[in-house]
Amino acid sequence: MPMTILTIQEVNNIISEHFIKIFGNVVEHYPAAAIGILRYRPFKNAGDISVAFNKFLDKLSLREKQNILQLYPDLVAKLADLSKFMLHIEQYQRISGADLLTIEDKQKLGQLNKRYKIPHIAFSTASEKKH
What we know:
By secondary structure, the chain is mainly alpha-helical.
């Protein structure tokens, strides 16, 4: 099926049923988002359409957002893995003392990483940072 490019005026003037068919999968598996942004017409440009989707999604309750995420089981699994990974990083930082680094320490590590193009890691104990 060839792609048809619509002007913003055409987007604003198409009947709701066609609008929902065209934009119903912007939030995949969730045509309610397209229905929800109909009230924001007329749009001035494509950016307005994006803003309308963001407003619609921002106004959803936490439960409604969770329901949308449930439509993506792979994404939910990836988010769970990321959450576990972040927990491990926080534990590592506490154990290594990295959570006690000053802003200056972090900046120095950043400069070393940039200069030598290898990661520099600072290890310390809580007692070292207290002195």
